[in-house]
Amino acid sequence: MNEQALIQDAQGGNLDAFNTLILHYQDSVFNTALRILGDDDLAADATQEAFISAFKSIASFRGGSFKAWLMRTVTNACYDELRRQKRRPTTPLEPDTEDGDEMDSPRWLADPGMTPDQKAEADEVEHALQHCLNNLPLEFKTVVIMADIQGMDYSEVAVAVRVPLGTIKSRLARARLRLRECLQGFAELLPASFRLEEGSGAS
Amino acid sequence: MNQRDLELLSSYLDGQLKPSDSARLEARLSSDPDLRVVLNDLRAARGLLRRLPMRKAPRNFTLTPQMVGKDPPLPRSYPAFRFVTALATLLLFFTVGLNFLAPQLASQSPAYGMGGGGAPDVFSAQVPAPAATEAPATGAPALEAPAAEVPAEPPSAELAPRPTATAAAADTARQAETPAEKNGFTGDATVQNQPQAQNQIARPVPSTWQLLFAGIAIVGALMMVMMRRQAAERWRRK
């Protein structure tokens, strides 16, 4: 995929070129939205909104990391969604157990390629992580999702959230520490790999 | 643990420290167990986040033209047609405006002389007329008729020399150009013939050009409409 050529075509109004870019980035964008919002349906809506908004404003893209630019768009769409939620709180569509409690790990979220044990473990880790992510302040959450889940470098994250590099470093450090503190409450759910890493030294 | 150390450890994990800062931190880590604990905590959190499975998007988020309110793609020649049509329309309006304004501008420059003498001329020529016709009807003494006629002539006679030299020159020029005025130089005749004379004098752009511009604008606009329709039909068929 020649990203630059596709971006230029998209800037000229070529929707097919932009759709090719969407197909390439939609998983990353959806996952970012999912981790920020913590809800599949809301994440899908925010992703769609983000791509519509990105196409309409693609003329403003002046080079650099296209992924960072897209992440900024999806972050804005997520913030809009969160603001909407604050105005109109809704009941989550989590499946209930027979006792009426929310199920911790909805089965439909699981990857069908996993064994039952792996599925259970992944569900537990994912649920614990999402819970801890949800408890982070929004600006910390956004930075840690981009740096640690999306694997973006500091400069890309700085472009995406429009804050200086020093602020990114500070937010990332504090977000990681808060996450670690939060995850300690789920220690018994976490896999052995987590506990092993805990004991390893600096690299 | 202060904020500065926390940032250093986090950046160290990501390999974002300068070699000198990195070496200094490693020296501190070897002697400070608390610092090591925090580093391990940060690494553990980062490790878990990195291991989070990437979900596949639940569906394709590709966009349709309707979703982005986009017009169908137009042919490459469309902008050329748009430019030519716009230019022809502008020129048409410009020439119409020019032809409309030019006579007025031409008449405004000598108007100070003409305006002063022209209006009283009309007035003086029209006012005495009823007096002259009334005279026999009422059976007034014959003296009244000359009395009525007497003031009719002096104003025109008085006003005739009043116009300035430029107005006089304009009048003579008009007389020379319009034979109708040669025969009877009355006030009414002057007022009626003035616009015709002006139209004949000042029309900088021939009407054939205006017709040409109008034709280009209309044809161009029709072509644009046809192109849009065809593009929309092709778009719908896709």
Could you explain the architecture of this structure?
The complex is a heterodimer of chains A (203) and B (238). Chain A folds into two domains: 1-88, Orthogonal Bundle (Rna Polymerase Sigma Factor, Chain: A), CATH 1.10.1740.10; 113-198, Orthogonal Bundle (Arc Repressor Mutant, subunit A), CATH 1.10.10. Chain A has helices spanning 3-11, 15-37, 40-56, 66-87, 116-134, 138-149, 154-161, 165-183, 192-199. Chain A is mostly helical. Chain A is globular and about 55 Å long. Chain B is mostly helical and 238 residues long. Chain B folds into two domains: 3-51, no CATH class; 78-207, no CATH class. Chain B has eleven helices and no strands. The longest helix of chain B is centred in the middle third of the chain and has 31 residues, at 78-108. Chain B starts with a helix and ends with a helix. Chains A and B meet through α2, α3, α5, α6 and α8 of A and α1 and α3 of B.
Number of domains of chain A: 2
If helices are DSSP runs of H or I spanning 4 or more residues, what is the number of helices of chain A?
A: 9
Structural class of chain A: mainly alpha
How far the N terminus sits from the C terminus of chain B, by CA atoms, comes to 63 Å
The biggest beta sheet of chain B is recorded as:
none
- Low-pLDDT residue intervals, each spanning 5 or more residues of chain A: 100-112, 196-203
What is the number of domains of chain B? 2
Kindly estimate the percentage of residues of chain A that lie in beta strands according to DSSP.
under 5%
The number of helices of chain B is 11
Helix content, binned percent of chain A: 55-70%
Per CATH, the class of the largest domain in chain A reads Mainly Alpha
CATH fold type of the largest domain in chain A: Rna Polymerase Sigma Factor, Chain: A
Average pLDDT for all residues of chain A: 82
Q: What is the arithmetic mean of pLDDT of chain B? A: 71
Proportion of residues in extended strands of chain B: under 5%
C-alpha termini separation of chain A: 35 Å
> Rounded to an integer, what's the Rg of chain B over CA atoms?
45 Å
State the share of residues found in helices of chain B, binned by percent: over 70%
